[in-house]
Design a protein that fits this description.
Structural class of chain B: alpha/beta
Oligomer: heterodimer
Strand content of chain A: under 5%
Structural class of chain A: mainly alpha
Strand order of the largest sheet of chain B: 5-6-7-3-8-9
Strand content of chain B: 25-35%
Largest interface: A-B, 26 and 28 residues
Shape of chain B: globular
CATH architecture of chain A: Orthogonal Bundle
Shape of chain A: globular
CATH topology of chain A: ABC transporter involved in vitamin B12 uptake, BtuC
Helix content of chain A: over 70%
Distance between the termini of chain B: 24 Å
Number of helices of chain A: 13
Distance between the termini of chain A: 30 Å
Number of helices of chain B: 5
Order of helices and strands of chain B: EEEHEEHHHEHEEE
Radius of gyration of chain A: 18 Å
Helix content of chain B: 25-40%
Number of strands of chain A: 0
Order of helices and strands of chain A: HHHHHHHHHHHHH
Number of strands of chain B: 9
Chain lengths: 265, 208
């Protein structure tokens, strides 16, 4: 325990702890909407598109965030649109886009000799969290929380029944876009810590765990955020203790909590 | 008389199929219109078109903004984590604000009271029967104090007493100036209330 506390003296550790905790909480809050709307695979699809865009940005010598952020936001629009417009085709679109993007990312990384960087993008690295990332994570979490507080009643209705909201004259597409942009930003930020392969876990797992405990939308959002925070802190500690990649530690703790909740309740 | 709905030469298509074919309909304040027809005649498609859920391939629609729609089948997750009062309150969201006012909450209570579900306000929707859930959706529709109420097969799943209650509520709202369009495939539903007009649909067209 003392050793873990001593680790906080290292700037990269507290940066990872602060940025990671905030991103995990944001991801879990958005995850509630995605799980209830049956869009659970979106995070997975977006993360692999993020991976492809990171590979291309790196190959071209461009700033990673500058390329991957708009690419993932654009992809989230397309996936949400296809999922809504052609309900059954949504899963197919995600599967096609994610596998094609993963293949493209691997291809570009291999051809340009960036297999070392590829490993960090796939599995994440706490060392990758810079001061700027931490500031961005704070701003992102403020945006997510702000949207949830201001638009809570609308998000509740749209998540429950999009059609009914439209019949009331509510512009549901606009709210979907807001959710898409926030999800894309969380994915782009989260990739740096948990990696492409595990980011969808921090979006989905806390909401699935909370679903067993919470019986109203608001309590689901709160419990999901708490589960995400606890899982991130414990997972990060675990990853330092047994020398695991941070993402793996966080997802492992999330999965254990989910199993415990399923067994006990 | 104030018009609540004006549908002119409406066509709604599923691919190349004209599910609604050149339908015109005008409904005024306080009017009660029954739309009937066999399965597949286009009743639900027409209500979805009026509710703004399906686009018109051609024709025009003008309707009041204060419209409440009760669909035949709610396209929502029965296990959604929500309480009855939360669902009923959503009926007020057509009026613009992001937060519920005290007046909104009072209206929700009144609607639940009127439909006999006040005691279920704190119940989770996943614990309700089909009939109770229909009352919840009706209470939600009334909560928005609509000028046009659009009901798609509202009697389905209701027992005799709920049926009677529904018609007394509809009588009350039309007396207040709300136009009511009720879609039903069951002719016996017409016995409970005095309709101003009965329209029969067949193959997407109004039978003269």
């Amino acid at each position: 325990m003392t050793e873990l506390l001593e680790l906080l003296a290292y700037p990269f550790v507290y940066r990872a702890l602060i940025a990671g905790s905030l991103i995990a909480v944001c991801a879990s809050v958005l995850g509630v909407i995605l799980v209830l709307k049956h869009y659970s695979l979106i995070g997975h699809g977006l993360s692999e598109i993020g991976f492809a865009s990171l590979s291309i940005a790196s190959a071209l010598g461009l700033p990673a965030m500058l390329v991957s952020t708009p690419a993932v936001i654009a992809a989230s629009f397309v996936i949400m649109f296809v999922s809504q417009r052609f309900r059954t085709a949504g899963d197919i679109a995600i599967a096609v886009a994610s596998s094609a993007a993963l293949a493209l990312g691997v291809l570009v990384s291999s051809l340009t000799g960036q297999t070392g960087a590829m490993n960090s993008w796939l599995f994440g690295s706490v060392l990758a969290v810079s001061q700027t990332d931490m500031i961005f994570a704070v701003l992102l979490s403020l945006a997510v929380m702000g949207v949830f507080v201001m638009l809570y009643n609308r998000l509740f209705l749209i998540t429950y029944n999009d059609d009914y909201a439209r019949s009331l004259g509510i512009n549901t597409a606009m709210y979907q876009l807001i959710i898409s942009v926030l999800t894309a930003l969380v994915v782009v930020m989260g990739i740096r810590i948990t990696g492409t392969l595990l980011i969808s876990g921090i979006i989905i797992l806390p909401a699935v765990t909370a679903r067993r405990i919470a019986h109203s939308f608001i309590s689901l959002v709160i419990v999901s955020g708490i589960v995400a925070l606890v899982s991130f802190v414990l997972g990060l500690g675990l990853s330092f203790m047994i020398n695991l990649p941070a993402g793996a530690g966080v997802i492992l703790v999330n999965t254990i909590l989910l199993i415990l909740v399923r067994v006990i309740l | 008389m104030t018009e609540r709905l004006n549908l002119s030469h409406a066509v709604i298509k599923y691919g190349e199929i004209r599910a609604i074919d050149d339908v015109s309909l005008t409904v005024s304040a306080g009017e009660f219109v029954f739309i009937t027809g066999a399965n597949g005649s286009g009743k639900s498609t027409l209500t979805k078109g009026i509710a703004g859920l399906l686009p018109l391939a051609s024709g025009t629609i003008t309707r009041t903004k204060r419209m409440s729609y009760v669909p035949q089948i709610e396209e929502a997750d029965r296990n959604f984590p929500a309480r009855v009062s939360e669902i009923v309150l959503t009926g007020t969201q057509g009026q613009g604000g992001f937060f519920y006012s005290i007046a909104d909450k009072r209206r929700a209570l009144r609607s639940m009271e009127e439909l006999g579900i006040r005691n279920l306000a704190k119940s989770e929707i996943c614990t309700l029967s089909g009939g109770q859930l229909r009352r919840v959706f009706l209470a939600r529709a009334l909560c928005g104090e609509p000028e046009l109420l659009l009901l798609d097969e509202p009697c389905a799943g209701l027992d005799a007493s709920s049926h009677k209650l529904l018609f007394s509520v509809l009588d009350r709202v039309r007396a207040g100036g709300c136009a009511v369009i009720m879609v039903t495939h069951d002719a016996s539903d017409l016995e409970g209330i005095k309709a101003d007009r009965v329209i029969t649909l067949s193959h997407g067209r109004i039978l003269e």
